[in-house]
Amino acid sequence: MAVRIITDSTSYLPESQIKKYDIIISSLSVVFENESIKEIDIDNSSFYERLENSTTIPKSSQPSISELYDIFEKEVKAKNDIVGIFISSEMSGTYSSACMVKNMILDEYPDASIEIVDSRSNCMQLGYTVISAAKAAQEGKNISEVVCIAQKTIRSSKFLFIPNTLEYLKKGGRIGNASALIGSLLKIKPILTVSKGKTDIVTKVRTKKKALQTIIDIFIKDGKEYGLEKVIVHHINDREGAMEFADQIKKIIGKQVQISNIGPVIGAHVGPGALGIVYCTNNEMV
Asked: Which residues form the signal peptide (predicted)?
């Protein structure tokens, strides 16, 4: 018997981490008109090329109940406990579906041990939570301990990003509290975060250069106050910009900074050209 970690594709975990910790991924999909494609089945360059040439912004869809049920049932039949950690319930119905599947499984397998965690975020803020849980599970911790560690990571992490435009967030219905910025984006560069499961405004400045510096300033302040554990630079189809940003951070912390390209589902909602960071601290920030 083991504790198995299940998450969704919007965690954008490095393949090396998925293999190292034997993490199970359930994929969300992007929908171009009448064609639905699992985001794990389309590479980022092909997707963003298609997005650029599309007249409409694709929608996204969550994993089906039947797919989640099959994943859960397989682990239960293998006598494993399950911790499912998913994209914010404010951004997707995936968490709600997982909770529904948990109840369905328990009806059929009353002795099953399943916990579902709402990450309240996405991308590597979700990813870091998943990795911390998977590491704990691999170390032999029980399901309650694994959940506790996952929740601590949620409280010890932050996601800051700069969209190139708010149009994608607006059209995709994921703009959250940043809706107040609509109509003024030509004059400002907003710095956004994910707070209480929704997109929210941190502050706004006049230029992209100033926005990136402001992110670094917040990152440094949090690092000094709470102790920096790890950091990753995210980008949406802007590797050159991400490399420059990562190099800036590297000069500050004195070590290499990993870069991660955000995939189709979140990319379609935020839009190409976005840059940001996710970082974890040793102590809780909330």
From this structure: none
Clarify whether residues 115 and 94 are in a common domain.
yes
- Residue 158 is inside which H or E element, if any? strand 157-162
pLDDT at position 168, please? Answer: 73
pLDDT-above-70 percentage for the chain: 93
Phi/psi zone of residue 143: left (φ > 0), alpha (ψ -120 to 50 degrees), beta?
Answer: alpha
Domain that holds residue 253: 157-281
Interatomic CA distance for residues 81 and 257, integer angstroms: 34
Residue 185 lies in a domain: yes
Instruction: Give the mean model confidence (pLDDT) for residues 97-107.
Output: 98
Planar angle of CA 214, 197, 242, nearest 5 degrees: 40
Decide if pLDDT at 258 tops 60. Answer: yes
| Euclidean distance between CA atoms 90 and 15, whole angstroms | 26
**Cβ(63)–Cβ(87) under 8 Å?**
no
- The 3-state DSSP class for residue 77 equals helix
Give mean pLDDT, residues 253-281: 95
Can you tell me which residue has the tokens 């000069």? 251
- In the listed set 138, 155, 172, which residue is the last one of a domain according to the structure? 155
> Last residue of a domain, which of 97, 124, 155?
155
CA pair distance 80, 82, nearest whole angstrom? 6
HSE-CB of 180 using CA atoms within 13 angstroms:
11
Strands (E) located in 105-215:
114-118, 157-162, 189-195, 198-205
Q: At 286, is the pLDDT very low, low, confident or very high (cuts 50, 70, 90)?
A: confident
Query: Which residue matches tokens 């107040």?
Result: 180
Over 50: is that where the pLDDT of 25 sits? yes
